[in-house]
Write a structure and sequence with these properties.
Distance between the termini: 40 Å
Strand content: over 45%
Mean pLDDT: 95
Order of helices and strands: EEEEEEEEEEEEE
Number of strands: 13
Low-confidence stretches: none
Amino acid sequence: QVQLVESGGGSVQAGGSLRLSCAAFGYTYSSYCMGWFRQAPGTEREGVASIDIDGSTSYADSVKGRFTISQDNAKNTLYLQMNSLKHEDTAMYYCAASTECAQHSRGYIYWGHIAYWGQGTQVTVTS
C-alpha cells in the first residue's frame, strides 16, 4: 500500500524555523520527482519545492532562499527545511510524488502527473 506520511508541522513565530519530513512507503521512491505543496484556506494548492531523481532542486519564487528541499534515498524520506518563516507561509503542507518536475523560467515549478499525495501537516506562523 502506497503511503506518504508527513510530520514536523506546528506553530512557530515569524522568523523561526521548522523542518518537515515525509516518509514514503509502498513504491519505488527513487523513480519519482518528489515535492512539497502547500494550500492555505481559500487558495489554490501551490507547489513550493521539488527534487528530481538526479537530485536537482527547484523552488517557487515565494520561498527561494528560505526553504531547502532534500531527501535521504536510503530512508525513502523527503525533507523541507523552512527558515525565516513568514505569516504568509501559514498553510497545510503536502508532500507528493510526481512523474516529472522542473523549474519554470517564470518562477514556479512545472509538475507532471502527481501519482501520490500525503495527508498533509499544518504549519502556522504567528506574527
